[in-house]
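Supplementary Note 3. Input sequence used for the single-chain structure prediction.
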Amino acid sequence: MEPSAVHPERATSTRPRVGIEPQLTDAELVTLAVVQALLGFTSERRWLRYARKHLGHLFRYLPKQSGYNKRLRKASTLIKSVIRLLSTDTTLWTDDVWVIDSTPVECGRSKETVRRSDLAGWAEYGYCASHSRYFWGLRLHLVCTLGGLPIGFALVGAKADERQTLLDILAVDPSMVADRPGQMLIGDKNYYGKEFEHSLDLQGLRLLRPARKGEPERRGARMFKPIRQVIESINQTLKGQLDLEQHGGRTPDGVVVRVLQRLLAMTAAIWHNDKIGAPIHRSLTDYDH
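The predicted structure, written as discrete structure tokens, is reproduced below.
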């Protein structure tokens, strides 16, 4: 049964009670979106052409590019719900260690794009210290387990404060930290400040981060270098295997749903690997060809 059948609020759009039945169900839409991301199709037109040739026998109906695009742009709420449903159905959901970080989501390079884009005002210029480059776009802030399972996320302007963004993620979804006393958060040097750490303490969260210049060494210092490699590996899965920065979105709704599409694909792979007992939960090798 489809998630939208059990929870009508998750449907991709409001439909009359009688008279209209979508040719492509919400479940089929989500399936197409996941497989597109896993197989590395950044062009919707090429993806649907491939799907008609190789997967047509699995679907009652496959829409044209414009129809698929319209349905997908309205599916953000549905996709977020499926991400949460799959995440909570894994053994990784109860991990007592989370990592927090942000990664650039570039949205344009030319001055003309920046000037005319519908994303102007949300997307902005920022700096990526990990790759020593400036970019114009957004940042994906991700709270996840050491195995890469997304717990919480936000897509914000490139200059948004990491600390406030994390607090906003926790405030929007209080269930994330409910019944998790002593949950450990590991972040980089940007997650600092007495008031910020006090806010986390009030929610039962313990923060580990490297010491900033002039600070004494903090607890867990030996963990930060290997954990940094884990974080970079998770980001590389999203960018190198799921083409996060080749999302192709040109409007706010388009960018949001394409980023969610990648997060859902990674979550679905982790969920499946967890169910079959695969040794590496975040491995996408079996699904990307």
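The beta strands are 97-108, 124-128, 133-145, 150-157, 183-186, 205-208. The mean pLDDT is 90.
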